[in-house]
Design a protein that fits this description.
Helix content: under 10%
Shape: elongated
Distance between the termini: 106 Å
Strand content: 25-35%
Order of helices and strands: EHEEEEEEEE
Length: 132
């Protein structure tokens, strides 16, 4: 029997078994719990598991009908809208499997170029006078 807890219901930083004693699990099951699953019309993703003490912590996420996600600061999943905080390490384009929902999508880096200028030396402009 494994007890499944919701991340929002526990003190994730001070996680110890005794901290879980007074927390109601989301559910208990004899089944093997996959990394990503649906339970009572909600979607969950795996965070932490302790097989020795038979508990795991999961986080709830939503699936969206976003089609495409354009011009965001981070690579963003078009299925669950989660952002990949290490987007700067990714290549300019490619395929990605979302760590939150498991959806696969293609991404492309969009680059915007802008320029700045600073004065260094004023131009020498000769003034001409009318001779006649």
């Amino acid at each position: 029997m494994i007890r499944v807890f919701l991340k929002d219901d526990i003190d994730y930083q001070a996680l110890k078994v005794r901290n879980l004693e007074n927390v109601e699990p989301l559910f208990e099951t004899e089944e093997s719990v996959p990394d990503i699953f649906r339970y009572k019309d909600s979607y969950y993703t795996f965070c932490v598991i302790n097989r020795a003490e038979n508990w795991m912590i999961v986080e709830k996420f939503k699936l969206y009908d976003l089609n495409d996600v354009d011009y965001t600061d981070e690579i963003t999943c078009p299925y669950c809208n989660s952002s990949q905080s290490d987007s700067w390490e990714a290549p300019d384009e490619g395929d990605y499997e979302c760590e939150t929902c498991g959806g696969t999508y293609e991404f492309q880096r969009n680059v915007e170029v802008s320029y700045s200028s600073i004065r260094l030396k004023e131009p020498v402009i000769k003034e001409l006078r009318k001779v006649r």
